[in-house]
């Protein structure tokens, strides 16, 4: 019996990949996108998937448990595809670590609530594929990212740390649709992320409804894929290489806006952001204007929660401003989760009269529109925690 336990990170796109819901895939089964995307990988301390895979000669069938509940394995084409592809890579690499005929049991957990609406599939599939690679003794390389991609598109970017580009590729086989690291997490270590988890009373019908609309796609999406994204990817990579936060922020916010404009241009529209999301957008623009430059950048995925990119040195200011504009009854550590923030840091801002006066100009929202806040930062790719042979 062999077993491995691994963790894999979440990644948040700066330049978005559009799923088939918005008509963004050129091949549905292989998950081939119509444009490149760029993301930042988050450290695993706050958000990650942890997966244990055991392979044994005595197992009768493949099985999988997700957060403690058994989920169908043999019926899940995405999981089967990942397993078969890893087997294929093991054969190509001549790896004979364990017999491919042995059945496997997969147990996977997310260390964050699925209800938070954060992209759990990217971390989950990256962890599955990485753990399989460890089990069968194959390296993390371009080809392994093509396997993770076939589990969930954005999962291919979670196989690397730092900033990562998923190249759309041109081949019908998809073997050139790979993720590559742009720079490691050490290149811009003070890049942090504040996630505002919003209180959302509405049931999220967006993606379910969206599926039914997959054939009807936006007329804007092709222009985005052909013209806008290629330019933005180059500009963003240059901004990252130069540590140019101002340009980084503008591109990120514009791309989030365009992604959601295309969701709205899908007919009938896919609505992912809610009223609170829009008030966060206004808050960020107001804050940046008051500060005289872009100190924060928002981005929204297929849900209402906001991800705010911010440099470490500007976090006290941002948290002060959030507490001001989005008042909340909750004051416990449960409200501000993740990397701890010294109260002294925030209090020092209350003593800065010029800053405080500026913050008085922020529009104050209704109480308790935010559920909680997660403070995290750029991080590394998946890693092996344990390996056992019995
Ligand atoms: C909005 O990777 O979850 O987060 O490939 O169908 O599994 P599938 O979709 P998924 O889509 C995520 C899309 C996004 C933008 C992004 O991460 O690029």
TrEMBL record:
Q: Which SUPFAM superfamilies match?
A: GHMP Kinase, C-terminal domain, Ribosomal protein S5 domain 2-like
Q: Which UniProt keywords apply?
A: ATP-binding, Cholesterol biosynthesis, Cholesterol metabolism, Lipid biosynthesis, Lipid metabolism, Lyase, Nucleotide-binding, Steroid biosynthesis, Steroid metabolism, Sterol biosynthesis, Sterol metabolism
**Enzyme nomenclature, EC number:** 4.1.1.33
Record bears the keyword Cell inner membrane: no
Give an example GO molecular function. diphosphomevalonate decarboxylase activity
Entry-linked Gene3D superfamilies: 3.30.230.10, GHMP kinase, C-terminal domain
UniProt xrefs under Pfam families = MDD_C, MVD-like_N
Per the record, the pathway is: Steroid biosynthesis; cholesterol biosynthesis
Give coiled-coil spans as residue ranges: none
Q: What class of enzyme is it?
A: lyase
Q: Which family does it belong to?
A: Belongs to the diphosphomevalonate decarboxylase family.
Please report the name of this protein according to its UniProt entry: Diphosphomevalonate decarboxylase
């Amino acid at each position: 019996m062999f077993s491995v336990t691994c963790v894999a990170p979440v990644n948040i796109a700066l330049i978005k990949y559009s799923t088939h819901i918005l008509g963004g895939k050129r091949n549905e089964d292989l998950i081939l996108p119509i444009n490149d995307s760029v993301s930042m990988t988050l450290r695993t301390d706050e958000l990650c998937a942890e997966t244990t895979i055991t392979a044994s000669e005595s197992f009768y069938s493949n099985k999988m448990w997700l957060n403690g509940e058994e989920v169908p394995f043999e019926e899940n084409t995405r999981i089967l595809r990942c397993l078969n592809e890893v087997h294929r890579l093991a054969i190509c690499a001549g790896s004979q670590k364990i017999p491919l005929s042995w059945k496997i049991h997969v147990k996977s957990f997310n260390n964050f609530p699925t209800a938070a609406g954060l992209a759990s599939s990217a971390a989950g599939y990256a962890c599955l594929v990485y753990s399989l690679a460890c089990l069968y003794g194959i390296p993390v390389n371009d080809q392994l990212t093509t396997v993770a991609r076939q589990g969930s598109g954005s999962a291919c970017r979670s196989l690397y740390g730092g900033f990562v580009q998923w190249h759309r590729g041109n081949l019908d086989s998809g073997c050139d649709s790979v993720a590559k690291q742009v720079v490691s997490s050490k290149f811009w270590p003070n890049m942090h992320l504040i996630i505002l988890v919003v209180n959302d009373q509405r049931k999220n019908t967006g993606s379910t409804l969206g599926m039914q609309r997959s054939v009807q796609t936006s007329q804007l999406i092709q222009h985005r894929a052909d013209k806008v994204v290629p330019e933005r990817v180059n500009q963003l990579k240059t901004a990252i290489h130069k540590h140019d936060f101002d340009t980084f922020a503008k591109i990120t916010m514009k791309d989030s806006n365009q992604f959601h404009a295309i969701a709205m241009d899908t007919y009938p529209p896919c609505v992912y952001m809610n009223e609170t999301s829009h008030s966060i957008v206004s808050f960020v623009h107001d804050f940046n204007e008051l500060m005289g430059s872009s100190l924060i950048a928002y981005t929204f995925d297929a849900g209402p929660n906001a991800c705010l990119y911010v440099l470490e040195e500007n976090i006290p200011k941002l948290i002060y401003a959030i507490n001001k504009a989005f008042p909340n009854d909750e004051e416990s550590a449960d409200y501000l989760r993740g990397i701890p923030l010294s109260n002294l840091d925030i209090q020092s801002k209350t003593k800065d009269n010029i800053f405080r006066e500026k913050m008085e100009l922020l529009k104050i929202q209704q109480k308790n529109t935010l559920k909680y806040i997660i403070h995290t930062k750029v991080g590394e790719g998946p890693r092996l925690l344990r390996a056992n042979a019995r």
